[in-house]
C-alpha cells in the first residue's frame, strides 16, 4: 500500500494537479462567455478541450521520465505531442462552423476552441503568466469587441431569412413582398433539398422601421411556401 501511495503521489503530483486545475479555470471562463451567448460549443466543450490539451502537455513533459531513466539511448522531444494537438484540434472547431446560405456562423467559437487548446498546452508547460494574460486578451476580444462591432455596424447589419418552398414557387412573388415592405435585398441563394424542395436564403438589410413579423407573415401566405424562419 505504501509503495502504491508513493507511486501515485510522486514528486510531480502537485505540479500536474495544479496545472490541470488552472487550465480548467481559464478554459472554463472563456467557455462560460460562449455559453452565455448560446453558441454550439460552450462551457463544457471549452473545459474539455483546455484540460485535455493540458493533459497531453503533461504527458509530453512527465510521461516518459521512467523510460528515460531506464534507457540512456532514449531521446526526449517535448514538442512532439503538442504539435499534433495544435493541428488535430481543427476538426472540433470545424464542427462548430455552420453555413446558412451565404452566411457563415461559428468561426469565432472555432477560433476560441483552438486558442483554448493552446492555453491548455501553455499551462501544462508551466507558463502561467502568458496563459493568464492570453485569457484576459481573449475575454476582452469576445466581450468588448463584440459590443463594439455591434455599435459600429448599427444600421448596416443584415437579417437572413430562410424560406422552404416547393419547386412551383416563383421567386418574383417573394421579391415583390420584400419590395412592398421597402426591404433592401442584399443576396439571394437557392439550394435544393430532398423531394425537390428548395431552400431559399434571402439576406436583407436590417432596418428598424421594417415590420419583420408582418413581412414574414405575408411571405407565409404565398402559395407553395412550406416554412419560413429568420436566422440571426
Top keywords for this entry?
elongated; 16% strand; two-stranded antiparallel ribbon; 232 residues; 6 strands; Alpha-Beta Plaits; 10 helices; 2 domains; alpha+beta; single chain; four-stranded antiparallel sheet
Mind explaining what this structure looks like?
57% of the residues lie in helices and 16% in strands. The termini are far apart. The mean pLDDT is 77. It has a 4-stranded antiparallel beta sheet with strand order 4-5-3-6, with helices on one face. A two-stranded antiparallel ribbon has the order 1-2. It has 2 domains: 2-152, no CATH class; 158-231, Alpha-Beta Plaits. The chain is elongated and about 80 Å long. Strand 4 (185-192) and strand 5 form a beta hairpin. It has 232 residues and is α+β, with helices and mostly antiparallel strands. The longest helix is centred in the middle third of the chain and has 25 residues, at 128-152. The chain contains 10 helices and 6 strands; from the N terminus they run ααααααββααβαββαβ.
